[in-house]
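Marked as duplicate of an earlier ticket. Keeping the data here for the record.
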Amino acid sequence: MDMIPVFKPSYDDEELEALREPFSSGWIGLGPKTHEFEKQFARFIGTKYAVGLNSGTAALHLAMQVMGVSGGEVITTPITFVSTNHAILYNHAAPVFADVEADTLNIDPLEIEKLITKNTKAIVVVHYGGHACLMSAIMDLARKHRLKVIEDCAHACGGSYNGQPSGSIGDIGCFSFHAVKNLACGEGGMITVNDEGLDTQLRSLRWLGITKDTWDRAKTKNYSWFYNVEEVGYKAHMNDIPAALGLVQLKKLDRLNERRRQIVKQYNMAFSAAAWITIPVEKSYTRSASHNYVIKLEQRDKFVQYMADKGISTGVHYYPNHLYPVYKPYYRKLPVAESIWQKIVTLPLFPDLTPSQIDYIIETVLAFSQKI
C-alpha cells in the first residue's frame, strides 16, 4: 500500500489544458496570464491590487521591505514556517517572538501588547492552519501604536475573519501557492494591497527595480526596449506557467476548501469522544480555510512512528522558530509554544482523500489508544 501523504494538490485535466495557452503562445515568462491572475485574485480577496511573485517567501520579503521594518523590531510568532521570520532578517530587522494561544496556535494579542516598544515597526500575523488570528484586537493595537500589520496568509487562502477575507484586513497580505497549499501552483506567491503607491513599488521590486516589465513593454504598439532602474530590486516575479494553474485553482478554491471542511467535520466527529486527543478549534469569528488538521496528544513521537508503520504520513507544524540556532540572539522563553509543540501532529488533509482513506486514517488513529 502506498503511503497516504499529509498534503497533496488537487489537479485534473483542467490544469493540464490551461497550460496549453502559454506553451502554444510561447509567452511563458511574466505575461498576460500573470496579469489576469493578479486581477482575479485581487477581486477574490477584495483588495484593489495583487502582485504575483515566485514564492510566498518572496511575498513576505518584499512586504516587509515596503512596510519599512528595516532597523526596527517586528513582533512575530514562533509557530510558523521559517519563511515568516527569515523575511524579517532579510530586511535587517529584529524578530520579537510573542507566545501563542494554546488552542488556535495563533499569536496571542495579549502577548503582543507586552512586547511593543519604541523600536517596534510592525506585527506579522500567521493565520495558522487557515484559522484567522484575532484581528480586531491586533488591528486596535496597531492603530494605537501606529504599527503596520502584515498578514501571512500562506495557510489561509479562502479563509475569513468576521466575513472579511484573510489578506484584506492588515496593511498588506502575503500568500503562498506552494504545491501543498490550498491554491497550489507548484510554486508562487501573491501580495495583496489597497495602496496604489505600494502596488507600483512592489512591481518594481519584484523585477530588479525595473520600472516597466517585459509584458508592459510588449503591449505598446512598437515594443519599447527602454526602461529605467530606480532602485535595487529582486528577481522575484511570477511567470505565466504557475499563473495559468492559479487561474484554474482559483475557480475551484471554494469547492476544494469546502471539501477540506467536510473532512475536518468527519475527523472531529470521530475523535471528539477520544479523551486522549485534543481536536482543533474553530472560533466563531473565523471561517477557516482548513489548510491542515492538527491534533494534540501525549506520546506524539510514538504516534508519528505508529502511523508511519501503518502507511500514513503525518507532520509536525511547526518546531518553534525561536529554538533554531539561527534565532538564538532573539530567544525569549515562550511557555505555551515550548510546551504545545511537543504535542502537535498534523494528519492528512487534502481534497482528494478518498472515503476509504479517511476511514482508514480514523480507524488507525483510534486504535493507537490500545498502545497507550
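See parent ticket for discussion. The chain is about 35% helix and 15% strand.
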